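Saturday, quiet lab. Running sequence design on the structure tokens for the scaffold JK sent over.
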């Protein structure tokens, strides 16, 4: 393997040098890419028709961390794990934090859950009932408190709030209630904390959703202040939406806070990122890297502090391999985006050379980056093929002892 990699990498390096790409810089950026995995991605999930129960699924938040540690150990790229409360509620958060540390991990984004209790059927922070609104806001505040206990600096908010029928809710009133709850939560944030506001155009509300698109999330975040930013979940857009355009716009406004990566074919499918739309993922990274070169420092800083997170439900596939595949796909598309020659694109744009500009972007996508990825893994003492290493590790067989009936989501 070693010899094959060396020869392939030498050729790759020569090609890139010829194109004016600094491969050492590419390697540095690639090893610097960190991707947060979600605790719920290790649990059982399904569609609304059925949740499939698998053998060996973690039974509690500690076991979810055990599985997340496998992904980090094999890729070196996933040192943090997002938690969802109350799915990951524990008696003692210091114990969970220490356990994460003992595995070489840390707790990442804290996600309040105001969508699974019966009380929230008609809305949480936008419910017409003031007691339910208070209960929901209290939960958001409780999550800020948990952030302090686990050492997290990201509060990741998604609201299922919406309605199914015209007239069911007072849309403008609900908009104001949403902002009130966000403002109260924003005030509780410590100076090092960020609040990321996620949007979704439908589901479970099918007539209207209170935060339906990036513009609404952007407006809410802008009114709150600099610690509030927008979270782009790649699965939360209508067919044909140009997600990379949204990314570029938010970067330029200094308001892109993070991603929830997944793939979609029809709606919020939460499929493995990069499986159906790798070019979209590449183009998202291209926009981020382009913004990283901006003359405006605020745009550059925004591009640098993006929280990259996976948000997927693995309904039919094995959870840990699914997470590994996600991370590997992200690394592959990021590696390709790092090969874009931005000067060549800018030059073609200046000359209004439509096909030249399109070619300068696409050309990077068409390179085989596997020798590059193999080399950076080898240099970090990681397996060159993390998926194979996992399948051969015996871990899946070991966790079979957990039996069936692990955590759902
Ligand atoms: C909602 O569809 C979502 O994307 C939000 O991020 C939730 O927190 C997550 O999925 C898990 O349900
Ligand atoms: Mn999401
Ligand atoms: Mn989603």
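Result came back. Writing it out in full:
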């Amino acid at each position: 393997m070693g010899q094959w990699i060396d020869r392939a990498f030498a050729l790759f390096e020569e090609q890139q040098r010829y194109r004016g790409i600094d491969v050492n810089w590419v390697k540095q950026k690639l090893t610097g890419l960190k991707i947060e995995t979600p605790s719920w991605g290790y649990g059982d999930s399904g569609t609304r028709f059925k949740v499939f129960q698998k053998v060996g699924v973690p039974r509690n938040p500690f076991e979810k961390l055990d599985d997340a540690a496998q992904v980090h150990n094999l890729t070196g790229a996933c040192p943090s794990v997002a938690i969802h409360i109350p799915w990951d509620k524990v008696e003692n958060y210091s114990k969970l934090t220490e356990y994460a540390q003992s595995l070489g991990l840390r707790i990442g984004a804290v996600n309040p859950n105001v969508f699974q209790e019966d009380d929230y059927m008609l809305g949480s922070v936008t419910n017409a009932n003031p007691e339910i609104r208070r209960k929901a806001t209290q939960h958001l505040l409780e999550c800020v408190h948990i952030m302090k206990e686990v050492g997290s600096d990201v509060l990741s908010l998604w609201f299922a709030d919406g309605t199914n029928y015209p007239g069911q809710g007072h849309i403008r009133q609900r908009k104001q209630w949403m902002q009130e709850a966000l403002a109260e939560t924003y005030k509780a944030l410590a100076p090092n904390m960020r609040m990321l506001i996620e949007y979704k155009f439908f589901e479970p509300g099918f007539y209207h959703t209170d935060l339906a698109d990036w513009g609404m999330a952007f407006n809410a975040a802008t009114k709150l202040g600099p610690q509030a930013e927008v979270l782009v979940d790649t699965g939360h857009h209508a067919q044909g939406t140009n997600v990379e355009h949204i990314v570029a716009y938010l970067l330029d406004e200094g308001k892109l806070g993070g991603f929830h990566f997944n793939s979609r074919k029809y709606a919020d499918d939460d499929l493995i990122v990069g499986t159906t739309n790798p070019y979209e993922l590449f183009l998202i990274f291209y926009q981020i890297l382009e913004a990283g070169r901006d003359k405006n420092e605020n745009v550059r800083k925004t591009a640098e502090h993006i929280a990259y997170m996976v948000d997927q439900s693995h309904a039919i596939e094995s959870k840990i391999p699914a997470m590994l595949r996600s991370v590997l796909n992200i690394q592959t598309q990021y590696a390709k985006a790092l090969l874009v020659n931005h000067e060549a694109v800018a030059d073609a744009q200046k000359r209004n050379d439509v096909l030249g500009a399109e070619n300068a972007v696409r050309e990077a996508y068409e390179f085989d980056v596997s020798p590059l990825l193999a080399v950076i893994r080898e240099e970090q003492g990681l397996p060159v093929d993390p998926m194979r290493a996992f399948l051969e590790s015996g871990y899946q067989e070991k966790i079979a002892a957990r039996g069936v009936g692990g955590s759902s989501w």
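Notes for JK: The chain has two domains: 1-32+341-393, 35-338. The pocket of alpha-D-psicofuranose (ligand 1) is lined by residues 40, 111, 158, 198, 200, 233, 260, 268, 311 (CB under 6 Å). Ask whether to fix the surface positions before the next round.
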